[in-house]
Amino acid sequence: METLLVDRFGRVHDYLRISVTDRCNLRCVYCMPEEGMEFEPDDRILTFDEIVEVVQVLARVGVRKLRITGGEPLVRKNLEVLIGRLSAIPGIEDIALTTNGIFLAPRAERLKEAGVTRVNISLDSLRADRFSLITRGGDITKVLASLEESVRVGFQPIKLNVVLMKGVNDDEIADFLRMSIERDVTVRFIEYMPIGHDDDGWRTRYIPLSTVLDVCADNGWAVAPHGEVYGNGPSRNYRIEGARGTFGLIHPVSDHFCESCNRLRLTADGNIKPCLYWTDEFNVRTYIGNPEGMQDMFFRALDVKPLNHEMAQALAQQAQSHTPTVRRMSQIGG
Ligand code: SAM
Ligand code: SF4
Q1: Distance (Å, whole) CA 121 – CA 220
Q2: Is 252 in the pocket of ligand 1 (CB under 6 A)?
Q3: Is 26 a pocket residue for ligand 2 (Cβ < 6 Å)?
Q4: Residue 249 to residues 42, 55, 165, 239, Cα–Cα distance (Å)
Q5: Which of 69, 209, 220, 322 could be bridged to 98 by S-S, CB 3.0 to 4.6 A?
Q6: SS3 for 315?
Q7: Which strand (E) or helix (H) includes residue 54?
Q8: In angstroms, rounded to a whole number, what is the distance separating the alpha carbons of residues 39 and 41?
Q9: Within a 13 Å sphere around the CA of 41, how many CA atoms are in the beta-carbon half?
């Protein structure tokens, strides 16, 4: 029988998120500081050959789905070439992309041809001036053009990632929900997470996602669960009655979804993170050219994977059982 990546708690891991760069063309307020971000030098970033080797080993032990992320994945040169090589690996069935959408429109068709089937586009405001403030300079017209081009080339599904922040964009919840009524897209509201924050700014802007259901009720929108409770990931999905699209709630802080966690993360500098939140990492570089050793390392990584993260304890300023990562979200990939 095929050996699978099963951890101590019986969770089967069939999904790898690959951060292809820690660099980004934006500086979203919840993700990176405005200035002073230090990036890995090029020679510390995994090459395409190394990423392919890691995925080949993981595909042999049951990884079927990949998500390409970053930093901003579209700032990595020749990304289409990497995607073409990954989609040719036996066992890989699905390749998704998470992007800020600024550079997507002109490359959407080539990315689709290379093997990307689905896209998540981050869009935290529908107002141009506010979008520019949140992203520190992003041009929303480029993101909206990428959304239209994603529909045209046939990415399916198309998801919009919205990180909700109290006093910043929570007055747009109804506008985003209207978008899910009018368009065949999934709007995914994400709780602001305390990843890599050296200050407590997130604590004051954090807002629980039950607020989204309150907004539905205030507007008289009847809401029904859509699909499985968690579907294929951490999002709890709903549809407003009569809507063309759906919306999802990703609430790692108020109600974590760790019991169904099926993912590993590969950082741009070559570290496997069994859990988004904790500090444990395993360097794959040491095992390049040694597939058996690398496979053993993946099992060791799973052996230390804890049952859950403790972001709720962080919010409540309670003691935590492990050490949280010092990496920023841009260095992990979300
Ligand atoms: N640059 C791409 C993008 O923005 O879509 C991919 C990388 S980004 C780190 C992946 C996702 O993480 C984005 O949807 C972003 O909004 C989300 N994210 C970043 N920092 C976050 C935080 N502190 N809390 C919640 N989500 C966060
Ligand atoms: Fe860049 Fe994405 Fe982080 Fe925004 S969320 S700074 S686009 S990596």
Answers
A1: 28
A2: no
A3: yes
A4: 36, 29, 14, 11
A5: 69
A6: helix
A7: helix 48-60
A8: 6
A9: 1
Mutate to test the pocket of ligand 2, among 69, 122, 165 (most ligand atoms within 8 A of CB): 122
Q: Tell me: the pLDDT tens digits for 118-169?
A: 999 999 999 999 999 999 999 999 999 999 999 999 999 999 999 999 999 9
State pLDDT tens for residues 293-309.
999 999 999 998 887 77
3-class SS shares of the chain: helix, strand, coil, % to 5: 35, 20, 50
Does any ligand 2 atom lie closer than 6 A to the CB of residue 28?
Answer: yes
Whether the CB of 195 sits within 6 Å of ligand 2:
no
What are the structure tokens assigned to 96, written together?
Answer: 């998704």
Tokens 């239209």 sit on residue: 148
Q: Which two tokens stand for residue 3?
A: 């050996």
* Identity at 303, one-letter amino acid code: D
Tokens 């990546």: give the residue: 5
Asked whether 100 lines ligand 1 (CB < 6 A), one says yes
DSSP H or E stretch at residue 273: strand 271-273
Supply the pLDDT for residue 232: 55
Please state, as a whole number, how many other Cβ atoms lie within 10 Å of the Cβ of residue 147. 22
What are the residue boundaries of the structural domains of the chain, listed by start? 15-332
Burial tier of 136 (Cβ tally within 10 Å: 0-12, 13-18, 19+): middle
Specify whether the CB–CB gap between 161 and 125 falls below 8 A: no
Name the residue of 20, 31, 143 whose CB sits within 8 Å of the most ligand 2 atoms, as the mutation to test its pocket.
Answer: 31
| 325 secondary structure, DSSP code | P
The letter for the amino acid at 221 is W
Distance 151 CA to ligand 2 centre (A): 22
